[in-house]
Amino acid sequence: MIVESRRLYSLLSDLQKSLPEDVYQARIAAEKAEAELQSARQRASQIIEQAHAEAARIIEEARRKAQALASEQEVVRLAEQQAQERKREADRYEAEVRQRADSYDAEVRHEADSYDQRVRREAEQYAAQVRQNADQYARELLQRLEFVVNQAKASIEDGFQQLEAISEGLPVEAHTSP
Fold first, then answer.
1. 175 belongs to a structural domain
2. What is the per-residue pLDDT across 80-93, written as a single tens digit (0 to 9) for each?
3. Contact assessment for residue 34 and residue 112, using Cβ atoms and an 8 Å cutoff
């Protein structure tokens, strides 16, 4: 019986050691997803900054051209139209980049959430299986213990009967333990 009790303690110890590792792995997965999300945000911010810089450059270029041609009124008007058109193009480009960055951000978030949910589900399933195995082992151990205790009880009762028979002077039958 001592060896089986030790096995039970060993299984319980293994259960305690395995659960923190699964929780640690889930935390690492969540941190990795957060890092990827942060990286996506930084990339989106850089793209937007580049779009702003490009828009500012285009506008500045249009202004310079307009100033160079300021002597002629029609040329100036055309240059202003061209600058406005380029500004609209830059604004459209910025909106497009922002939309793509937001879309990428949403996709990364979705993937991170899916991964987190899958890791949590797997960790919970593993923990449930370990608990189920530990419960089954404990049941089997208790059943064996009950059998041994019942045998010991029967042996004690038999010993009392033999002792009583001896004290009454009756012949005692030799019994063998099962």
1. no
2. 888 898 889 888 98
3. yes
